[in-house]
Amino acid sequence: MASASELQSTQAELQSVKRALQNGAAYLGLQGEALQKYLLQLNEKENLLLSKQLRGLAVQESFEPLLPAGASSGPTRGYATSGQVTNGAHQPRPAPVGDAKAFNRDNLQDVLVHMAEYEAVPAECAKALKALSSLAYANARVVGQDERVLPALLRAVRLHSREGAVQLTAMRAISNMAYDQEVALTRLAQPDVMGQLLTSMASKSEPKEIGARASEALARIIAAEVKPESEGGGPPPEQPVQLPAGSPGALCGLFLAACSAEAVCKEIVPQLLLQLSSNEVIEAKQAAEGFTRCEQECKNPGDGVGWLALAKILSPMDSVRDLPAALVEAGAIRAAASIMARFIDDSLVQLTGIEAMSSLVGNRWAGLRAFADVGGMERVEEAMRRHGPDALIQTKGVRALGSGVQWPQDIQERARYSHRRAVELTKTAMSQHGGDVELQIAALEALAKYLDKTKCVSDIKEAGGEGLVKMMMTTHHANPKVQQWGRHVLTGIGADPNWAPKTGTLP
Q1: pTM for this model (two decimals)
Q2: Beta-carbon neighbour count of residue 215 at 10 Å?
């Protein structure tokens, strides 16, 4: 560990040199430009000693106070959403005994050291973050490009998720860093940073400026990619920004962060997009293309479920103007089908996928044609075959199949839709889940549609279909919808019109 006395001596000498420069005096026989060079050498020495001190603290406490950029103590896309320390982060290291030490708020090294040493004390964290915010305001590039800054800031935010002063000063610091477009794109447009900003925006914490600053930071980061000349951010870089290897970019990073976040963070995304659209930062087409593109980054079922859930939120007509149609145009339905095919054995992916595709299609002919062209109905059928015991998948699937028989003939042909397969899958679902009344209602209503549209009496009666309908009507004799649709089906297949379920004790 670096000697404390050596560090103090170096810092004292730095102050002496600064005073000499301010007064135009000499120091150790040096003056002017020569003294300026000596000041730079002392600064480098101080930085080296501080870095050694930080590493020494980490070894002593088995703790990494300032993780290097790119390092992670847990999943790449994990971040705190409920006030708990995540990603395997340690509990805060106890603060030094005695009164809190003073620190040089104009020196980034001092600020980071203070934040590390006093991370257990919210008030001291807030002081350090306030100083960090001021430094970022003065020079966003220097602060934002320092690889220790963001890990330290995010750690403080997660350790003190309920401390308004910590949260506010941290959001101010990120927003100030985001003013530099190169920093915004190379350092801040990462899912972990974007995720924390979404969490802060969605938390509705007091003071309300926390959410406003988080929203401002997100807007600056997105604008740096999609509209670098927009107001509110810094001047565009002279040369195109080279994104780090593996970086998804700002817009894709936002959506990936939302995919990994809790529902409340997903639900805030339309509000953010609406703000960006109102301020003419982003168009619906750009948002839709960015969202669709990030489907390729879904490497596991959890990511897939998150993407599909977000698709459900973004696709209703009242989300963002022109966005639902833009999602269809950008290929979001194909992307949803791709996720379902990729994770065919995951039941939650399949359930959410059926719901997402239904929402993306909506009542739009373009959506229905896209659904047909990408084999959407085949994905539904495969989900039902693979996940027979899952009553929810079967219920959603039965309803989706029932809608297909009402499509125009050309759409059915494009979708390779078969009402015979639909009838077979519907009867299988009925027999597997006899006790599920919602499934039985959906199935009997679907069978009634098939009869009305295709007169497929033999398909329904095949393999004991009539007996199956009567069994379900008997099992659910007290449910009026089961009786209504069951009677409709029995009449359609020419069964005894006087038949009625026995309401006694079933064998």
Answers
A1: 0.77
A2: 21
How do the domains of the chain map onto residue ranges? 1-61, 105-236+247-282
CB 173 within 8 A of CB 153: yes
Distance in angstroms (rounded) separating the CA atoms of residues 306 and 263: 9
For residue 145, the tally of other CB atoms under 10 A from its CB is 16
- Residues contacting 22, CB < 8 A, separation 6+: none
pLDDT digits (tens, 9 = 90+) for 424-478: 999 999 999 999 999 999 999 999 999 999 999 999 999 999 999 999 999 999 9
What integer pLDDT is reported at residue 228 of this predicted model?
73
CA distance 380 to 239: 48
User: Which helix (H) or strand (E) is 464 found in, with range?
Assistant: none
Residue 263: CA count within 13 A, CB half-sphere: 3
pLDDT in tens, 109-136: 999 999 999 999 999 999 999 999 999 9
Identity of the amino acid at 79: Y
d(CA 304, CA 295): 8
Q: Burial level of 264, CB count in 10 A (0-12/13-18/19+)?
A: middle
CA 349/CA 335 separation, integer angstroms = 13
Report the phi/psi class of residue 464: left, alpha or beta, with left for phi > 0 and alpha for psi in -120 to 50: left
Other Cβ atoms less than 10 A from the Cβ of 479: the count is 17
**Length of the chain as a residue count:** 507
The highest-confidence range among 11-20, 40-49, 226-235, by mean pLDDT, is: 11-20
CA distance 169 to 160: 12
List of residues 6+ apart from 164 with CB closer than 8 A = 205, 206, 207, 210
* DSSP-assigned states of every residue in 203-235: S-PSSTHHHHHHHHHHHHHHHHHH-TTSTTS-P
Q: What is the mean pLDDT of residues 73-86?
A: 34
Q: What is the CA radius of gyration of the chain?
A: 31
CB 425 within 8 Å of CB 397: yes
